[in-house]
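> forwarded from #structure-qc
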């Protein structure tokens, strides 16, 4: 956990800073080129390209580096402009014409920073030779970049990012490796991570939004070689006016406000001391910049800014009765004991590991196929429960209900042969169990009963208990059961029950009931088998619309009392949107059960850049009367980049979660 007035970041000073005169140009020194050409890629590839571009822009913004943003298509037509550094964060299909533009840019003195997928001829401009992808041979093989000391000023000792694959590369004459990949234990691999020459740099993987602080320092170090004015730009000209710090416009206003609150206790005194030390460091950095020591001044200013934010984070209250949970994968990362220890250190009280789907179990199940790693490794759920009891963290087994995700192909083929899978409107099998099949319903009940009787878990949680979309399920069994249950006759299947079909509304009601009745049966069975077991559900955020598309009528689950609380997956970084969602969800539930919103720190398509965004959403949830929150999802980056900062204030005190007390 960060400590002391100034957070020690162990920044590398490659050589003593010499006076540097800030350069001037007619525009921002950096141009970020979004890869809008994806070649044979899909719409998902285009979204990923945009996300990688956005993450890199966030790093530049955090580093106070002026930049502009463009796209492949624009550079192809108009060139790079007057920028001196061009960055390609994830550009899969640079055209010949764009490559020619980049070649002219480098020939005129420009510098390129290219990530992962660069064309060989473009990378040749920065004296790098690339090969194919190198897949990780074991989990965590490519977990961090370790940097050589004394090469590029300002690079951090390491940048953490768990990468399933990297690209093989080597320096050509005139370039050198400045960082290599290492595994999660810190053991170096013989695989270059960053290569630098006098014309640019190459990173053998894209940069994601994890470990944002160190990636910010990396980008500042690389850009600072060729645009030295960025060092001066990151030092506040008027330290007293630096801000905002949370809701305070300046650090001076923050310090003044803290001075008026000293009677509130030691937490305020600690925050005041930290903020005052941060201001002192900012004043010193400004003085250093005044005599031309821009690089060292920028390093000190960076540490001071983080310390000021840390002081602010100490101010968040820490309620004594709320859910503080994390969704998790089946195995502890790196071990369940370590994971539970990290959660307890930050005063989190619940974890929701997925432990089975409709086709496979990550525990020793008598009803589901036991995944191969269970046969080799052991029972993941038993390990989680043991570690949870040791560290005082509740374990709620998450059932990925009707999805057959993670099941081997052979299991899916057998389910298809047994006609247990959903069919779409064209009769094509989907990788989801049909909820109208009594065999599938019996399996869900048996698995839940098995979990609560064989393991000392605190509860079960439904996830993926829905249809995959509006196009399911239209199998013959669903037709027969719909006609039997409603007494109606369908003359044209499925046209009569979809879109504007005459029976569409009745079918939508019936479809929702197929899912609700499973919740009802499983909930009653689990509670009967083990009284006191809590039943919760991870649900889609918009009950009103999603109940039609996905058949997930979770408000009815609440009204019937067949779930004890719900965790809507409110994955956004927009506080206004998050507020609107939680308000609406609280109104739907009406105080019958707690609402514990999901915060999507590592959710697909969402880019969290630091603790402040999480704290904002936690505060919103608390102010609106939520029963707590659940973060998606646990991984080492969460423990490193977020949990310690939440523990400064928002989760600084232990908390228990009582379902009845939390409902309002």
């Amino acid at each position: 956990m960060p400590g002391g007035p100034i957070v020690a970041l162990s920044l590398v000073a490659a050589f003593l800073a010499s006076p540097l005169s800030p350069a001037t140009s007619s525009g921002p020194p950096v141009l970020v080129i979004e890869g809008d050409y994806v070649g044979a890629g899909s719409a998902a590839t285009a979204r990923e390209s945009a996300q990688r571009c956005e993450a890199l822009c966030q790093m530049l913004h955090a580093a106070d580096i002026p930049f502009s943003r463009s796209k492949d298509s624009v550079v192809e037509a108009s060139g790079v402009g007057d920028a001196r550094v061009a960055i390609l964060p994830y550009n899969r299909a640079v055209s010949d014409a764009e490559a020619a533009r980049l070649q002219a840019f480098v020939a005129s003195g420009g510098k390129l920073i290219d990530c992962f997928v660069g064309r060989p001829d473009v990378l040749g401009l920065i004296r790098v030779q690339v090969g194919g992808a190198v897949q990780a041979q074991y989990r965590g093989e490519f977990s961090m970049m370790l940097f050589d000391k004394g090469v590029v000023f300002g690079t951090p000792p390491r940048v953490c990012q768990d990468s399933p694959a990297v690209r093989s590369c080597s320096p050509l004459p005139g370039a050198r490796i400045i960082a290599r990949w290492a595994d999660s234990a810190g053991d170096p691999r013989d695989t270059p991570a960053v290569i630098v020459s006098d014309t640019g740099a190459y990173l053998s993987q894209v940069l994601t939004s994890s470990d944002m602080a160190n990636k910010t320092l990396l980008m500042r170090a690389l850009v600072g070689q060729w645009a030295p004015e960025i060092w001066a730009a990151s030092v506040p000209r008027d330290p007293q006016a630096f801000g905002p710090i949370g809701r305070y416009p300046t650090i001076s206003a923050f310090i003044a406000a803290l001075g008026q609150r000293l009677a509130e206790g030691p937490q305020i005194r600690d925050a005041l001391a930290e903020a005052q030390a941060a201001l002192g460091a900012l004043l010193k950095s400004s003085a250093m910049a005044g005599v031309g020591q821009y690089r060292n001044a920028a390093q000190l200013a960076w540490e001071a800014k983080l310390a000021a934010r840390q002081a602010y984070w100490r101010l968040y209250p820490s309620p004594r009765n709320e859910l503080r949970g994390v969704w998790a994968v089946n195995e502890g990362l790196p071990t369940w004991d370590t994971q539970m220890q990290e959660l307890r250190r930050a005063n989190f009280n619940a974890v929701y590991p997925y432990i089975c789907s409709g086709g496979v179990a990550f525990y020793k199940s008598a009803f589901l196929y036991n995944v191969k790693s269970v046969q080799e490794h052991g029972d993941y759920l038993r390990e989680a429960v043991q570690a949870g009891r040791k560290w005082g963290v509740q374990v709620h087994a998450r059932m990925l209900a009707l999805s057959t995700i993670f099941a081997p192909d052979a299991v899916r083929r057998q389910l298809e042969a047994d006609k247990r899978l959903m069919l779409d409107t064209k009769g094509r099998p989907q990788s989801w169990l049909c909820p109208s099949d009594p065999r599938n319903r019996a399996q869900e009940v048996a698995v839940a009963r098995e979990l609560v009787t064989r393991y000392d878990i605190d509860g079960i949680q439904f996830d993926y208990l829905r249809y995959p979309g509006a196009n399911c399920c239209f199998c013959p069994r669903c037709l027969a059961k719909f006609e039997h249950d409603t007494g109606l006759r369908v003359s044209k299947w499925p046209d009569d029950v979809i879109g504007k079909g005459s029976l569409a509304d009745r079918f939508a009601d019936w479809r929702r009931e197929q899912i609700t009745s499973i919740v009802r049966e499983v909930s009653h069975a689990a509670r009967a088998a083990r009284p006191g077991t809590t039943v919760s559900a991870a649900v889609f955020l918009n009950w009103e619309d999603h109940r039609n598309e996905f058949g997930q009528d979770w408000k009815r689950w609440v009204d019937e009392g067949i779930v004890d609380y719900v965790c809507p997956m409110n994955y956004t970084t927009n506080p206004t949107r998050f507020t609107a969602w939680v308000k609406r969800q609280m109104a739907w539930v009406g105080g019958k059960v707690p609402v514990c919103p999901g915060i999507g720190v590592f959710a697909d398509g969402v880019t969290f850049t630091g603790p402040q965004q999480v704290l904002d959403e936690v505060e919103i949830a608390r102010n609106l009367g939520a029963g707590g929150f659940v973060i998606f999802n646990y991984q080492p980056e969460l423990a490193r980049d977020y949990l310690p900062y939440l523990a400064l204030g928002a989760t600084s005190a232990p908390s228990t979660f009582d379902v009845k007390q939390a409902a309002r």
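QC bot note: Confidence is low (pLDDT under 50) at residues 1-25. The chain has 23 helices and 21 strands.
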